Amino acid sequence: MAAKKLRRARLSQELCERLSRHQITTCQDFLCLSLLELMKVTGQSYYDVQKLLCKVSRACAPKMQTAYEMKLRKSVNPSSAFLSTTLHSLDKVLHGGVPCGSLTEITSPPGCGKTQFCVMVSVLATLPVSMGGLDGAVIYIDTESAFSAERLIEIAGNRFPAYFDSDEKLFCMTRSIHLYRELTCGSVLKRIMSLEEEIISKKVKLIIIDSVASVVRKEFDTKLQGNLAERSNFLARGASVLKYLAEEFSIPV
């Protein structure tokens, strides 16, 4: 949760803008600085900086909850804990569908339909809750230039012809899916770390990265010295931010 933006830690806008000029935008950026460094960049006293540290620490600290509270929250509305894939056998294996609030990794040999599955799930997330959807927007990060808008419309029309019975509905659905083509590990990580405010402003209910393995294979040859450590660092940082986003906003990633 250290990836939380300082704006959401209830600091003043003026202070956030001042910190931003020093590339301090997240709780982690703020908490990694010493008291003297914070006094310098904020222009505040030792006592005031200590109060800021407490405020930011509380804002990004995970909220305590009991096992009973977790179970109760899911049992009150079990459908909200999953995004159904509409594939009965798969939903059964997944105990309800793609889980909200956590990361789901899809793996298979090339050509087995991972991208098609991701496109289908994108359509499902835009559907109304009454139809098993999440009634929200989707952020789709495409690292292989494999996403096809034509295929998206075709899947929507074929799977749900009664709902997508007009060009207007198809148009609204396509406007809810925000596509980013990021072809390097650096650009993928940068995009992931900038998603928090976009999730809020666009009411995003699903994040898809298709695929992490693609950019990792292109950039890291594990036979070369040091590459294994760099790859592990990239994957750990990316997974940490995505896990935070999934848990903070209770969305499937």
UniProtKB/TrEMBL annotation:
Record's subunit section: Part of the BCDX2 complex consisting of RAD51B, RAD51C, RAD51D and XRCC2; the complex has a ring-like structure arranged into a flat disc around a central channel. The BCDX2 subcomplex RAD51B:RAD51C interacts with RAD51. Interacts with SWSAP1; involved in homologous recombination repair. Interacts with HELQ.
Chief place where the protein resides: nucleus
Keywords, in A-Z order: ATP-binding, DNA damage, DNA recombination, DNA repair, DNA-binding, Nucleotide-binding, Nucleus
Name of this protein: DNA repair protein RAD51 homolog 2
GO molecular function, one term: ATP binding
Similarity remark: Belongs to the RecA family. RAD51 subfamily.
Source organism (scientific name): Opisthocomus hoazin (Hoatzin)
Biological processes, Gene Ontology terms: double-strand break repair via homologous recombination
Role according to the record: Involved in the homologous recombination repair (HRR) pathway of double-stranded DNA breaks arising during DNA replication or induced by DNA-damaging agents. May promote the assembly of presynaptic RAD51 nucleoprotein filaments. Binds single-stranded DNA and double-stranded DNA and has DNA-dependent ATPase activity. Part of the RAD51 paralog protein complex BCDX2 which acts in the BRCA1-BRCA2-dependent HR pathway. Upon DNA damage, BCDX2 acts downstream of BRCA2 recruitment and upstream of RAD51 recruitment.
